[in-house]
Amino acid sequence: MKYRIFGKTGEKVSVLGYGNMRLPVVNNNYADVDVPAAMKLVRHAIDNGVNYLDTSWPYHSGAFDTGDFKTGGSSEPFVGQVLKEVGRDKVFVATKLPSWLVEKREDMDAYLDKQLKRLGTDYVDFYLVHNIIRPTWERMMNLDIAGFLDSVQKSGKVRHVGFSFHDTPELFQKVIDYYPFAFCQHVVNYYDTNFQAGLSSLRQGARRGMGIVAMEPVMGGVLGDRLPEKAKQRFGKSGINRSAAGWSLRWVWNQPEVSLLLSGMHTMEQVNENLKLADESDIPLTVDELTTISEALKILHENDQIPCTECGLCRCPFGVSPKDNFAVYNANFNLDVIAISDKNYDIMLRNNGMDAALCNNCGQCAFMCPMGIDIPNELRRVKMYFDTHHPTGWC
């Protein structure tokens, strides 16, 4: 196993982290972790050098099916069982403050105490403010998140603090200017280089000395087994014996700013392949490999309905994010990820006041577009699509 220093925390973390959001379950019931099967996988990963376990309050609660994110899931208690079996000193534990449930300052302490009890430990190594988007962040600031983070580190309940992020580079800048976070976690994969925070924020955080955790390296599995056949064939022509998911992981590790990537492994085959790839993580991709990924990416964008390059030059005075609306919309046609796009549209766009419905047709954005896209007209198309196919929202 390869290890990297985790930013200014100084911790030596494995380049592969175990994401406990997609553990094996019983009878396809997301809320019911198959403990014996999951334990076998996680212990095998730890025995082979993985030392970072990521979990959170809602994981394996059924929330991603029901939209009810209030109930604590079974992922944290499962990680607690792992700690009992392998020893608390063998791994770093990362979990997250359920920010959407916090209504007053005291709630922050109450949820952390509940999480420590669920994990069966006196402290958490890495504690993240979960799912930062603009409304969440404004509420956290109003409720003195800085004071909370200071106090839990001083008490020893938390060793290092960070945040997970689902918003724009502009908000990312405000967050890291507000508090000296030690690390951050956001989406990093070769398809989403400009989506949400994008690679620009990854590099911005690294310049601050922050540890960088890459989540969704395989886009929830979409860049693996669910990749369009034509793209898979392009990878196959490379002559390299590597799965489609493996190509995505290797691309993420090729980003020098990334401290570790999280993989939600739920089969032994996935664990073993990822362990092997982790051993290769410090070997730079060749020009031929980068060309192969670039050509596969072009294939993935062949079905784009809106020719947006996600350059981000358009600015809306009313808060709409055209590039993110278009990215979510295009992904449905490129990758057949309707359920994922629906969630992204609701979580990041509707709930964040950035969705297409807020466009008032002023046209200012269209003058900024180097592609000549009629942005207001295309935003109407996006709005109509999500209103028609997904009218009830998600959370």
Report the end-to-end length measured between terminal Cα atoms: 38 Å
Number of discrete helical segments: 15
Helicity range: 40-55%
Structural class, from helix and strand content? alpha/beta
Give unreliable regions as ranges. 391-395
Number of strands: 12
Rg from alpha-carbon coordinates: 21 Å
Shape designation? globular
Integer average pLDDT = 88
Strand content: 5-15%
Which SSEs are present, and which pair or pack?
Elements: E1 3-5, E2 12-14, E3 16-19, E4 25-26, E5 29-33, H1 35-47, E6 52-54, H2 63-66, H3 75-86, E7 92-97, H4 105-119, E8 124-132, H5 134-142, H6 145-155, E9 158-165, H7 169-178, E10 183-187, H8 198-207, E11 211-215, H9 229-236, H10 244-253, E12 260-263, H11 268-279, H12 287-300, H13 322-335, H14 338-350, H15 375-389
Parallel strand pairs: 3-6, 3-12, 6-7, 7-8, 8-9, 9-10, 10-11, 11-12
Antiparallel strand pairs: 1-2, 4-5
Helix pairs in contact: 1-11, 7-8, 9-12, 10-11, 13-14, 13-15
